[in-house]
Design a protein that fits this description.
This protein is α+β, with helices and mostly antiparallel strands and 420 residues long. Among the domains are: 136-231, Phosphorylase Kinase, domain 1 (2-Layer Sandwich); 237-415, Transferase(Phosphotransferase) domain 1 (Transferase(Phosphotransferase), domain 1, Orthogonal Bundle), CATH 1.10.510.10. The protein is built from 14 helices and twelve strands. The protein has helices spanning 46-59, 95-107, 140-145, 186-192, 195-205, 238-243, 252-271, 320-323, 331-346, 356-365, 376-385, 396-400, 403-409, 411-415, and strands at 119-122, 125-128, 153-161, 165-172, 177-185, 216-221, 225-231, 236-237, 274-275, 284-286, 292-294, 301-302. Helix 7 packs antiparallel against helix 9 and helix 7 crosses helix 13 (403-409).
Length: 420
Amino acid sequence: MWTGGAGGSAAVHRPPLPPPPAPCAAPAGRMTAAAAVPRAAAAPHPAAAAAGGARSRAAQPAGGGTGCRRRRRRPQPPPPPPRQPPPPPTPATGSRAAAAAARTDDRRPPPPPPQAPRADRRGGVEWRRGGAPPPPPTGSAAAQDRSWRLDDFDIGRPLGKGKFGNVYLAREKASAYIVALKVLYKAQLCKGNVEHQLRREIEIQSHLRHPHILRLFGYFHDANRVFLILEYAARGELYKELHRQPGSRFPEARSATYIASLAHALAYCHAKSVIHRDLKPENLLLGLRGELKIADFGWSVHSPANRRHTLCGTPDYLPPEMLSGQEHDHTLDLWSLGVLMYEFLCGAPPFEAEELTDTYRRIRQVQVTYPPHLSDDAVDLIRRLLVKEGKQRLPLSGVLRHPWIVKHAGPTLAAQGPLP
């Protein structure tokens, strides 16, 4: 320490103070003591933890404190809970129920398509077998709304050939549904003067829904052809099946099954004032399971008055009233049913002859020869159907209750479905 002279000011020299101690640097991964709070005293909110840290730093003595401590990791907020779907609506009543159900159905996703049954291949074209078939490509109402084209189908092998065109196996591309595509040439239709007959066939067959009637799904045409979209009958014509049998005839059980199926189908047609007028083995088809189906409604007619005068059909199956030029009604189909039953059991029509005039004569006189192998019940049913007067023929309800049908076709088939 130095002192100045007299009259001067004294200057005192003080040594410099040592520098303050450097703050303690926390090692990597460690936190300062101000933020370190015991877990038991931790505040539930981060703001409270920050306030607690400030109070700790204020109470710490200058130049140090207690050293470095671990910083407590700030808690993370919990993840939000998953959103729960809204509860289903409570059922409504009255007129509001339909509206609420419609709104609910609109929100629901469409159901998955049904699994297709196992497919098989014959003739190079796929066809379905087993289980319930998929829905057809169209119905009568949908056919009026949709315009079909030939490009909508894959064409397969030919199934048959007729006077006015051919029939082909086909598959509708969108649904993979197997159908029979009947192709008719307009030039041949005009030449045969049967345009009106085709219109009537389409109008009648497209409105018939019966397991023993071939379904007509729709139609379309181009400049030269008319296409009919028909149900596919996998086993083909009954005529070919008949002539593949020994002696070209069916056993009684099979014949009775076919006659009972025809009786149900005809009862359905007659209830709708439809007369087929051309029943014969060539116009009967067999489905995949052997079920009988009436096809070719070219000569059919919708006759609410139930009286017709036109001479039409196939000579061997014509009734006496048609050959005599008299008016006829639905009992005409009963006569054809008796002719078919005879042919199923004997292998040939009952009035067949080399000359057409002899055939007509036998029909007018109802000359029938019954072979000895026919049972008495079979002969009785044929005689009740092949009656000259239409009103005296056994009705379809009586056919299904006949002992021969009940015995050989079984009571289930004989009594299935209501009859008019």
